[in-house]
C-alpha cells in the first residue's frame, strides 16, 4: 500500500451515510440541512487557523473545503459548494446532484414548500434565506433529533471509513517507527514531535488528529501534555501519543519509549502489566511493586484507590474525531443518579467516587449489569489504552492527604517512581464479526520497539 495515496478508488459513500441517518431519524419525509464550515481569519489579520471541516457535514458529503452546504430530502442528496467544480465533486462522492452555493436559497424555498419538516443540527445552523422569503407556517423545524441521529449513524463505520482509518493508522505506525529509529539521537522533546510530524507529511497526511504528545519524565504523567519543549537528559521514559488523519479520519496510537534505549528498573516495572487492562490488573501490579500495600487487590480496587494511578477511561471511539461520538449509549458503565461520567474521551477524570459507582453498576446495584453501556458491534473502531501515572500533585492532593486512601499507598516505595512520570500503551481496535483486529499493530512496541531503538 502506498501511504501517499488515498488507497480507496471508491467514491465517498455519501448516500449510504445519509440513509443511515434517515433510518436513525425513523422518518421518510422531511428535509435535512447542514452548512459546512466557513473560512476564518484572526482578529486584525489576513491570516487564520488551518481549515477544519465540520465533521457532521463531512459525514454526509465528503467535502473538505469551505463555503458549502448539503440537503437531503430522504430521497435526493444535493450538495452545494463553490470549488471545485460540480462535476469534480460528483466524481469524488456518491451524490445525486451538486450545484453552486448561490443557487441554495432558491432551491430551499422551493423544496420547503413541499415538505412539512426541516431538520437542522442546531438553531445556529438554520438556513439563511435572505430576501427570498421565510419558512411557511406548515414547516416544522426540528433542532433536536438530527444530532443524536447522525451521532448514532457514525458509531458503526462503513467500509470506506474503515479504509481511511486503516491508512491513518498505517501512516502513524510508520511515524512511530521512524521516531524509534532515531530515538537515541534526540536531546529534546521537540525533536520527537518534529520527526513524527515530518514522517506523516512525507506520507501525504498533513493534519494530526490531535496535537502530538511527547512527554518525558514527569511530563509523561500529564494526560494531554503538548508543550514538547523540554530536554530528555536525566529522564527515564517518553510517552509518545500521536496519530495522523487521512481524509478527515483519525488514528490514535501511544507508545512508551525508554530514554537511552533501556528501561530503568522502575520504568520496566511500570510497563510490565500495561498490555492487560483495567483497575484490578493495576491493583495487582501495584501491589506487586510495593506501591500499594495493607490490603488485597479487590479491597483496594473497591475503595477506588487505584484511580490515583489510572485516572482515565480505558478507551473511546475513533472516527471523524479522535475521541469520536459515542452515539446514544456510552462505552463505559454509567451509574444511576450520576451525570454522564464518560462522554467520549480520556480527558474526563475517573475519580474514586466514579470508579466505585461503576463497580456497583457492574454488580447490578443500580438495576442490573451493563446499565447505560453499549455493546461492541462489528464495524466500530475503539482504542484500548491502559496507563499508569505517577503525578505527584494529583496523588498528594487527592489521595495521600485522605486517610481512606493513604493507608493503602506506600509513600517510601512511591518516592522511587515519581521520576517515571507515567506510561501508556494505546492501539486502535477494529471490532469484527469474529472478534477484533488491531489495526495499529505495526507501530513498534515491546521487544520489537527496543530492537529498533538499539538498532539490533
TrEMBL record:
It comes from the Eukaryota. The keyword Membrane does not apply. Its EC number is 3.4.11.9. It holds the Pfam family AMP_N. One of its GO terms (biological process) is proteolysis. It catalyses: Release of any N-terminal amino acid, including proline, that is linked to proline, even from a dipeptide or tripeptide. Gene3D superfamilies: Creatinase/methionine aminopeptidase superfamily, Creatinase/prolidase N-terminal domain. GO terms for molecular function: manganese ion binding; metalloaminopeptidase activity. Residues 12-125 form the Aminopeptidase P N-terminal domain. InterPro entries: Aminopep_P_N (IPR007865), Creatin/AminoP/Spt16_N (IPR029149), Creatinase/aminopeptidase-like (IPR036005), Pept_M24 (IPR000994), X-Pro_dipept-like (IPR052433). Keywords: Aminopeptidase, Hydrolase, Manganese, Metal-binding, Metalloprotease, Protease. Its cofactor is Mn(2+). Belongs to the peptidase M24B family. Catalyzes the removal of a penultimate prolyl residue from the N-termini of peptides. This is Xaa-Pro aminopeptidase. The lineage of its organism: Eukaryota, Fungi, Dikarya, Ascomycota, Pezizomycotina.
Amino acid at each position: 500500500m502506498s501511504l501517499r495515496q488515498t488507497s480507496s478508488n471508491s467514491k465517498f459513500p455519501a448516500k449510504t451515510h445519509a440513509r443511515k441517518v434517515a433510518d436513525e431519524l425513523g422518518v421518510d419525509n422531511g428535509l435535512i440541512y447542514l452548512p459546512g464550515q466557513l473560512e476564518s481569519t484572526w482578529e486584525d489579520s489576513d491570516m487564520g487557523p488551518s481549515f477544519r471541516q465540520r465533521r457532521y457535514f463531512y459525514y454526509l458529503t465528503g467535502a473538505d473545503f469551505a463555503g458549502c452546504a448539503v440537503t437531503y430530502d430522504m430521497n435526493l442528496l444535493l450538495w452545494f459548494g463553490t470549488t471545485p467544480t460540480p462535476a469534480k465533486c460528483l466524481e469524488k462522492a456518491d451524490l445525486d446532484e451538486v450545484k453552486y452555493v448561490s443557487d441554495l436559497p432558491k432551491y430551499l424555498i422551493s423544496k420547503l414548500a413541499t415538505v412539512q419538516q426541516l431538520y437542522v443540527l442546531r438553531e445556529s445552523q438554520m438556513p439563511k434565506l435572505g430576501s427570498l422569503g421565510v419558512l411557511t407556517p406548515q414547516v416544522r423545524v426540528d433542532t433536536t433529533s438530527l444530532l443524536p441521529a447522525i451521532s448514532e449513524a457514525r458509531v458503526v463505520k462503513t467500509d470506506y471509513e474503515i479504509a481511511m482509518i486503516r491508512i491513518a493508522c498505517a501512516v502513524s505506525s510508520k511515524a512511530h517507527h521512524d521516531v524509534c529509529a532515531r530515538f537515541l539521537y534526540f536531546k529534546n522533546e521537540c525533536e520527537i514531535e518534529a520527526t513524527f510530524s515530518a514522517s506523516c507529511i512525507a506520507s501525504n497526511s498533513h493534519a494530526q488528529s490531535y496535537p502530538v504528545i511527547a512527554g518525558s519524565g514527569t511530563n509523561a504523567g500529564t494526560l494531554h501534555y503538548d508543550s514538547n519543549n523540554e530536554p530528555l537528559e536525566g529522564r527515564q521514559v517518553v510517552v509518545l501519543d500521536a496519530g495522523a488523519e487521512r481524509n478527515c479520519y483519525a488514528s490514535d496510537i501511544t507508545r512508551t519509549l525508554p530514554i537511552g534505549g533501556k528501561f530503568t528498573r522502575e520504568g520496566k516495572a511500570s510497563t510490565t502489566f500495561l498490555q492487560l487492562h483495567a483497575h484490578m490488573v493495576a491493583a495487582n501490579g501495584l501491589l506487586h511493586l510495593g506501591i500499594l500495600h495493607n490490603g488485597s487487590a479487590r479491597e483496594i480496587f473497591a475503595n477506588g484507590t487505584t484511580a490515583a494511578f489510572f485516572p482515565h477511561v480505558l478507551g473511546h471511539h475513533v472516527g471523524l474525531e479522535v475521541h469520536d461520538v459515542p452515539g446514544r449509549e456510552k462505552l463505559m458503565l454509567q451509574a444511576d443518579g450520576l451525570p454522564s461520567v464518560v462522554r467520549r474521551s480520556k480527558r474526563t477524570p475517573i475519580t474514586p467516587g466514579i470508579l466505585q459507582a461503576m463497580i456497583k453498576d457492574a454488580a447490578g446495584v443500580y438495576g442490573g449489569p451493563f446499565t447505560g453501556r453499549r455493546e461492541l458491534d462489528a464495524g466500530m473502531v475503539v482504542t484500548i489504552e491502559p496507563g499508569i501515572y505517577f503525578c505527584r500533585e494529583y496523588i498528594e492532593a487527592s489521595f495521600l492527604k485522605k486517610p481512606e486512601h493513604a493507608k493503602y499507598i506506600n509513600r517510601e516505595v512511591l518516592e522511587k517512581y515519581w521520576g517515571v512520570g507515567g506510561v501508556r500503551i494505546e492501539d486502535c481496535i477494529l471490532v469484527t464479526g469474529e472478534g477484533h483486529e488491531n489495526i495499529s499493530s505495526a507501530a513498534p512496541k515491546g521487544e520489537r520497539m527496543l530492537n529498533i531503538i538499539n538498532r539490533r
